[in-house]
Amino acid sequence: MSFADPVLLAVGLVVAAALAWAAVAVARRRAAALAAAGVTAASPGPGSRRGRDRARLGGVWFTIAGVAVLAIAVAGPAASVPVSRASGTVILAMDVSGSMAATDVTPSRLAAAERAALSFITVQPDSVDVGVIAFQQGGLEAALPTADHATAAAAVRRLKTGGGTSLGDAILASLSAITHKTVTVGRDGSAPNIGYWPSATIVLFSDGQDEAGASGTGTDAGTAAAASVAEKAGVHIDTVGVGTTAGSTVDVDGYHLFTALDVATLKSISQATGGTYHPASDASELNGIASSIDLRLTVTNQPLPLAGAFIALALALLAAGAVLTVARSGRVV
């Protein structure tokens, strides 16, 4: 059990302890006074008198117990309760390299990718956690996977272009976000064993321009190795092509560079992992991805407020104390 305000708990319990000490002190003084007068608490007497004495003591202790329980309630007690939830994970890997500033799609490739990503996030059910990875020459985690889709949407809206592109790093960064541990490929290209994650999918928004594989003949060795890690882990990669094959020029560091949509690279990534390639104009086809995810059952601890239960118990104890006090004195006031 945890408490929202331990200070209030401590103060309340000190007050209850002080009342208990005062009750004991008064009872001892009363007993001493009766003994001095030659009367003992156990001496015979009218039954009604003995009943009133018991009622008096019972009323006091019920009241003190009520104060102590009320102190616990005021401190905001909560219990940690395990709650199961069926969920899946989708990582949106967003290309923010310099080529995404091209305007062969209106108003720019990045804006078109953001629009498609935001539409995708909007239709995702609560059972899907959505995360965002922004990648240039490497991956940058923009938002951890979460059921709060507004967080993912805000991360997408903050994206800006700049730098080169490494699709392999984007895949590895996405896998790291899924597994919550750093995923890398060995120098010899060996793929690590990251377990099996069929409940996760990566949606990669890019123009396919990969600086690590500039030959234009498909994925380079690093990207292929990263895709292999995803495939072995059961993670599908759906790719979304942003841009046109006719291409456009873009200013990067003062240079005019030609860039065009590389469909072959994006298709090879999706095919290697059992995913599907989609043009950005048909990104609405992505909306059905959630239905293809094998949801996993996760257990998380969530706080269960207990203040109401303690308040009810405190009121019951205080009411009992009041009833016994009235029974002792024979009057309400």
How would you sum up this structure, described in words?
The structure is a single chain. The protein has 333 residues and is of the alpha/beta class. The protein folds into two domains: 2-76 and 306-329; 83-297, von Willebrand factor, type A domain (Rossmann fold, 3-Layer(aba) Sandwich), CATH 3.40.50. Helices cover 43% and strands 23% of the residues. The protein has nine helices and ten strands. Strands 1, 2, 3, 4, 5, 6, 9 and 10 form an eight-stranded mixed sheet that branches. Strand 7 and strand 8 form a beta hairpin. The longest helix has 31 residues, at 6-36. The relative contact order is 0.17. The model is unreliable at 42-49 and 213-218 (pLDDT under 50).
Spell out the helices and strands N to C.
EHHEHEEHHEHEEEHEHEH
Number of strands: 10
Helical percentage: 40-55%
Examine the secondary-structure arrangement and name the CATH architecture of the largest domain: 3-Layer(aba) Sandwich
Return the structural class.
Answer: alpha/beta
Task: List low-confidence stretches.
Answer: 42-49, 213-218
CATH superfamily of the largest domain: von Willebrand factor, type A domain
Intertermini distance? 39 Å
* Number of contiguous helices: 9
CATH class category of the largest domain:
Alpha Beta
How many domain units? 2
Biggest sheet features: 8 strands, mixed
CATH topology category name of the largest domain: Rossmann fold
